[in-house]
C-alpha cells in the first residue's frame, strides 16, 4: 500500500465528513455551494488537491480511488465510508429531498 493510500485512509477516518476535492473542479464548487447553503461548511473537511502538482494530484486521485473505488471529484465520505459524489447531491436536490438526506447522515439537524 502506498504512503498516499495510508494518508487517504487517515484523512477519511479522522473526520466525520470528508470531501475529496479540487478547486478547479466545477462539481466540487457545486458541492461546496451546497455546504454553504445549509451552513455546514465548517463540518465538512475538504481535502483539496487543486493547487498541487499534476503528479501529486494523480497520486492522491489514485489513492482515494483505491480506498473508495470511486474516482470522481468530489467524492464525499461519511463516517469513513464513501457516501457518493455530486451526483447524489444533484439527485436529492432535484427530488426535493436534499435536506432530509443530509439530516439522515447527521450533517444537519
Automatic annotation (TrEMBL):
Domain spans labelled Glutaredoxin: 20-82
Gene Ontology biological process: cellular response to oxidative stress
Pfam family, one: Glutaredoxin
Origin: domain of life: Eukaryota
Annotated Gene Ontology cellular component terms: cytoplasm
Single GO term (MF): glutathione-disulfide reductase (NADPH) activity
PANTHER family hit by this protein: GLUTAREDOXIN 2, GLUTAREDOXIN-1-RELATED
Name of the protein in its database record: Glutaredoxin domain-containing protein
Organism: Vanderwaltozyma polyspora (strain ATCC 22028 / DSM 70294 / BCRC 21397 / CBS 2163 / NBRC 10782 / NRRL Y-8283 / UCD 57-17)
Amino acid at each position: 500500500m502506498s504512503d498516499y493510500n495510508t494518508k487517504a485512509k487517515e484523512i477519511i477516518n479522522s473526520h466525520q465528513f470528508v470531501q475529496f476535492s479540487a478547486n478547479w473542479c466545477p462539481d466540487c464548487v457545486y458541492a461546496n455551494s451546497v455546504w454553504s447553503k445549509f451552513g455546514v461548511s465548517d463540518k465538512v473537511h475538504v481535502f483539496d488537491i487543486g493547487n498541487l502538482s499534476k503528479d501529486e494530484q494523480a497520486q492522491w486521485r489514485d489513492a482515494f480511488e483505491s480506498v473508495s473505488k470511486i474516482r470522481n471529484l468530489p467524492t464525499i465520505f461519511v463516517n469513513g465510508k464513501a457516501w457518493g459524489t455530486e451526483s447524489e447531491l444533484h439527485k436529492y436536490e432535484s427530488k426535493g429531498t436534499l435536506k432530509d438526506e443530509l439530516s439522515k447522515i447527521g450533517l444537519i439537524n
